């Protein structure tokens, strides 16, 4: 018998639980080179752990692929 699917935890959920912006949560969880205050980083990591957040690899790949498509001049 299949088990019940667990609810999807989004980056927005993690940011809200940590009390930070989605951008800050993204920087922490995405390994950005931009600096984040240590207290915010700790809050984001704790929230991600508590919520059992996992990165959606296909969504991340789509986002990165979209960044690499050159725009038409015009």
Automatic annotation (TrEMBL):
Record's InterPro entries?
Answer: HTH_LacI, Lambda_DNA-bd_dom_sf
The answer to whether keyword Transcription regulation applies is yes
Keyword Kinase present in the record's keywords: the answer is no
- A single Pfam family, by name? LacI
> Which superkingdom is the protein from?
Bacteria
Q: Which GO terms describe its molecular function?
A: DNA binding
What protein does this entry describe? LacI family DNA-binding transcriptional regulator
- Species of origin reads Nonomuraea purpurea
